[in-house]
Amino acid sequence: MAYSEKVLDHYENPRNVGSMDKQDPSVGTGMVGAPACGDVMKLQIKVGDDGVITDAKFKTYGCGSAIASSSLVTEWVRGKSLADALTIKNTAIAEELELPPVKIHCSLLAEDAIKAAVADYRKKHPNQEAAAEAATAAA
Amino acid sequence: MNATSQLLAASHFELFGLPEQFAIDEDDLNRRHMLLRTKMHPDRHIGLAAEQLAAEQLAARINEAYRTLADPMLRAAYVLSCRGRDPFCENDNSMPAEFLEEQMEMRERLEEAADEQLRQNLAADAQQACRKCLDELEDQLKEPEPDLEAAAHTVRRMKYLRNFAAECAQT
Questions:
Q1: I need a surface site. Which of A1, A135, B133, B153 has the fewest CB within 10 A?
Q2: Any CB–CB contact under 8 A between B45 and chain A?
Q3: Average pLDDT, stretch A105-128?
Q4: Among B167, B60, B27, residue whose Cα is nearest residue B104
Q5: Could B93 and A35 be called an inter-chain contact, meaning their C-beta atoms sit closer than 8 Å?
Q6: Strand A39-47 vs strand A53-61: parallel, antiparallel, or unpaired?
Q7: Could you report the per-residue pLDDT of B66-113, keeping only the tens digit for each?
Q8: Which ipTM did the prediction report?
């Protein structure tokens, strides 16, 4: 199967590979897997007090499409609020990377990873977003 | 339905005349495979193009069935699929977080492994874990009341461990 140029680009020059301290209160970690392929993907986000994602890192052991999907979403989530990050859909990832139908599940894995990372961060800060909203409303 | 289309539609187990269960006598499977292959060999059908095409389809079908049944992990996955619990269903990505963490760490260790000995040790550990999975599967898929849910999870764990062992061999 031929990968698209965009997949190859992310595969050969992955963006934002690495790890953050998952114990850090400002870090949310999403760890997901695709048992059918035996892939494992870790996506981490660093979130500021205003609820905006300032940094993202990933580490993926899997096929080129899975690596490209996670690399791409680390670029997409930077600068987004948690709520906006959750609106990233796998269909958009698949479209951007021109993934063939048999590789759509790789983009789904990346979407699951964002959701898991946001959920992990929210678990650490159950009240932050409500407080930030209230502060914006008051200002 | 003619004989060929009947065989093409048969399950892997039906093709070899075996009961649909995980436990299998490998020598028996190999014997049945040889017999079936000899009987269905495409070269025996030279002449009519349609017949030969059908024979080739059948040969491919037999190969696929044999590959699946001869491999314990694939056989377990197949039995589970037949019973409505496909372990590799793409809509179900749930894996225990601790297991994924462990898999991530194993792969990081492999990346950092500088010497051959360390890589071999990691591969040996993974193969050992695979054998343990097989023991578990034998137990979990024991008839008449197999634990499909537990077996599906074991198959999924085993897929990861096998991939890892293969990666160790590559690097």
A1: A1
A2: no
A3: 94
A4: B167
A5: yes
A6: antiparallel
A7: 999 999 999 999 999 999 999 998 777 788 889 999 999 999 999 988
A8: 0.82
